[in-house]
Specification:
The protein is of the alpha+beta class and 446 residues long. It has 10 helices and 19 strands. Strands 1, 2, 3, 4, 5, 6, 7, 8, 9 and 19 form a 10-stranded mixed beta sheet that branches. Strands 10, 11, 12, 13, 14, 15, 16, 17 and 18 form a 9-stranded mixed beta sheet that branches. Helix 5 (162-175) packs across helix 6 and helix 8 (336-350) crosses helix 10 (421-433). It catalyses: L-valine + 2-oxoglutarate = 3-methyl-2-oxobutanoate + L-glutamate; L-isoleucine + 2-oxoglutarate = (S)-3-methyl-2-oxopentanoate + L-glutamate; L-leucine + 2-oxoglutarate = 4-methyl-2-oxopentanoate + L-glutamate.
Length: 446
């Protein structure tokens, strides 16, 4: 009697463990193809069902159950470069609209559970070829990152804290059973792509090259299982400042109808599936005169994120100023900009690096904060400012929050930024643009 027939199937992992124990047996002897319900879950158990044919499998070291969650390596020295025959030219920097213009080339790296990572290629930017049954099109098996390359006043090109993007992308991949990768190897390949496309990096202050690493499941298979095939690709887009005419504070709507994430979910990962559900609520609040949703959680209405950004609240606490951001509790995306702002603020508090114009009595907190606390701070005059943070905008100031039928008014400075966000933003941008030396700024070389 089979495991399923006996009713002793307690979990997917238990069954897969049984098959892993008998891997040598399965690849040594001819076995019949499974049928019925067993046939449907067979690919998930074997991870790559192509490795279990009606006969002998010669790839003992690469076959069924080969992928263990540990990264397999691809080698940058094997990179193939296919130059475009129809190169475009970078448009004038003043005409750039975020996410609309793309460079001549892209990086692609295929993966399969049989072969591991394949040959990396830098090839002409263009359409991808996908089967209509590709798992990404049915089950949202897609992750991505957002990072930037900058050109300093001397023409030197750098990336800002790319190690954090690589770490987060690997974490996202593992969460949705996509293959993990060697971070250093991928970063080398991204640097080569940037070097090839270096003429697309604007020279004007505040401009950059936005880089979008993405991974998708490409196996042609209708069924919920880890994909046996995937594609990692990287595209680049020149961008200008998010606020070209100065900072413009935005209005938020603190929605109590929809949530962005929940405990035990995927809010801490950069998955495509996290973003599409936010579009409809955003359209609704736009009709009400608000730019973005302020995502809340629980009956206490804890603040979590702003649109697609992390968020910060600044409060008066007696003779001190407190910078508050929600903790990384599994619902909050661990943003690179968020971490950078916190690090700079904590360096100021510790005296490691004093930031001009920040108060001496300064508190940096990662803690839960509710809408009730924000309401009370506004009523008592203790609400100093509120802003979002992210790779695209860096800092996005807020001037009001719609909540339960009323608006909470948030102070802003004369130029749109508040007294705390402005000096920290200046320090952060200085490190990104190379005017302030920093280990966070990683050179891009050929």
């Amino acid at each position: 009697m089979s495991v399923i027939e006996s009713g002793s199937l307690h979990s997917y992992n238990a069954v897969r463990e049984i098959f892993e124990q008998y891997n040598d047996f399965l690849i040594t002897f001819t076995i019949p193809a499974p049928s019925g319900m067993f046939a449907f879950i067979w690919p998930a158990l074997c991870y790559n069902y192509k490795a279990i044919p009606n006969g002998r499998n010669d790839r003992r070291s690469r076959g069924f159950a080969q992928y263990s969650g540990k990264p397999t390596r691809y080698f940058p020295e094997h990179l193939q470069f296919i130059q475009t025959e129809k190169p475009g030219t970078p448009p004038p920097s003043k005409s750039l609209v975020f996410g609309h213009t793309f460079t001549n080339h892209m990086l692609t790296i295929p993966w399969s559970s049989l072969e591991g990572w394949g040959t990396p290629k830098i090839e002409p930017y263009g359409p991808l070829s996908l089967e209509p049954s590709s798992t990404v099109l049915h089950y949202a098996q897609t992750i991505f990152e957002g990072m930037k390359a900058y050109r300093d006043e001397h023409g030197k090109v750098t990336l800002f804290r790319p190690d954090m993007n690589m770490k987060r992308m690997n974490s996202s991949a593992a969460r949705v059973s996509l293959p993990t990768f060697d971070s250093d190897a991928l970063l080398q390949l991204i640097k080569k792509l940037i070097h090839i496309e270096r003429d697309w990096i604007p020279r004007e202050p505040g401009h950059s090259l936005y880089i979008r690493p993405t991974m998708i499941g490409t196996q042609k298979f209708i069924g919920i299982a880890p994909p046996s095939e995937a594609l990692l690709f990287v595209i680049c887009s020149p961008v200008g400042p998010y606020y070209p005419d100065g900072f413009k504070p935005i209005a938020l709507y603190a929605t109590t109808e929809y949530i962005r994430a929940a405990p035990g979910g995927t809010g801490a990962y950069k998955l495509g599936a996290n973003y599409a559900p936010a579009v409809m609520p955003q359209k609704q609040v736009a009709k009400m005169g608000y730019a973005q949703n302020l995502w809340l959680h629980g009956p206490e209405h804890y603040l979590t994120e702003v649109g697609t950004m992390n968020m910060f609240v600044v409060l008066k606490k007696g003779d001190a100023i407190e910078l508050v951001t929600p903790p990384l509790d599994g619902m909050i995306l661990p943003g690179v900009t968020r971490d950078s702002l916190l690090s700079l603020a904590r360096d100021h508090v510790s005296g490691t690096y004093k930031i001009p114009k920040l108060p001496e009595h300064f508190i940096v907190s990662e803690r839960p904060i509710t809408m009730k606390e924000v309401q009370e701070a506004e009523a008592s005059g203790n609400l100093v400012e509120l802003f979002g943070s992210g790779t695209a905008a860096i800092i996005s100031p807020v001037n009001r929050i719609g909540y339960l039928g009323k608006d909470i008014h948030v102070p802003t400075g004369e130029d749109g930024m508040g007294p705390i966000s402005r000096p920290i933003w200046t320090e952060l941008v200085g490190r990104q643009m190379g005017t302030i030396p920093s280990d966070w700024s990683v050179p891009v070389t050929a």
